[in-house]
Structures are given as C-alpha cells and as structure tokens.
Amino acid sequence: MQEFWGKPIFGSKAVKVKAKLELERHNVWRELIIPLNMTFREFHKALQIVFGWRDYHLHEFYIYSDEVYKNRDYKPVVRLVGNEEAFDVPTEIETKLERDIVLSEYIPYYRKLKYIYDFGDNWQIYIDIEDVTENYELNHPVCLDGEGDAPPEDIDGETAYENFLKAVENVKASQNFMVRIIAAARGYREFDIAIVNNELKWYCVQS
C-alpha cells in the first residue's frame, strides 16, 4: 500500500478543523483536514507536526459538547491520554487511551476539543470542527492554512518565548550562531506549509 500513499485510492469521511494555540500576545493557528478513520494517537502526531514539536512531553485530549469549552468549570465529555500511567491520576472524567479511539467515535458529533501538550509549559490548543467532508480522497491529513510560529520545546512559557523571539531577531542582524544553534536544537522553525505537508505525508508512510 505504501506506493499508493498520498494518491486518491478511496473516499473517506474527514473533517476540517482549526487548531489555535492559546497565547496572550501571539496569533498561532493551523487549519487542517483530518480523516475520521485516524486514531487520536495519529491526530496527536499530526498536531505535533503542524506546530513543529518533537513529542518530548506528555499530552492529553479533552472532548467537549458545544457549550463554551474555555470555561474551567465545564466538565469534558471524555479525556484521552497517551499512556496507561495517566490513569493513576484521580479524576471524575471518563478516561481512555487515545490509541484505542478512532476520531469518528466522537467527531463530528462533538465539535470542540482541547489538546494540552507539555504539562510544564502547559501549551493549550483549542480545536474547533468547522466542516465535514463526505468523500475525502486522501488517507493522510493535510494542512490547509496557518499563521504564526509555535514556541519551541522546553522554552518555559510565553514570556520566555517572547525573549527567545527577540534573540532570534537579533540573530538576523548580528549573526549570533549560538542562538541559532540553540533554536535548531529545540526544533524551532518558521511555519512553512509545504514542509509541514511533506512531513504529514511522510509520517503516514512510516506508520
């Protein structure tokens, strides 16, 4: 099957989603189309790619009804986690392993999700289901649009990210190669939709 990857083999149901990283002073978002026969584990990998992260840290999904899901007091429908150790944390929310759950079990019936990555930096991505495609002809996600550069790994929050961006700007003027090396080591790069889509396709080939 690998020789057919990325080619229109069959139609499947998919959704267009907008994933927005919650930052106070920066606008960072991605718009994707995601086949609903993917698992949430695969969706996690796709989010890692489009935001330029390297899957160094723990993460989890929360699925909500259509009520306002930024309200901290509003209880999610379900929590999806990446490893069994997460079940050791007491919670009243139903918890499942993401690798066992296909997107179509919850989407598009539920249209609002939250994805949390790196519990230290606590990056929170709010995901809205915008549209449903009944006959999607690819079997991998595609990034349709996006804006802003996501923070690199282990940057220690938004304030540190702003300082990092200033240092990166200084690199362009002063050719500070040490900062450039640090940026590369943490996986930081400017958003490039062509590179992102190549990586999304390559990940599916390797899966």
TrEMBL record:
A Pfam family reported for this protein in Swiss-Prot or TrEMBL: PRiA4_ORF3
Cross-referenced InterPro entries: MM3350-like_sf, Plasmid_pRiA4b_Orf3-like
Record-annotated Plasmid pRiA4b Orf3-like domain positions: 14-197
Superkingdom of source: Bacteria
Entry-linked PANTHER family: LEXA REPRESSOR-RELATED, TNPR PROTEIN
Protein name, UniProt field: PRiA4b ORF-3-like protein
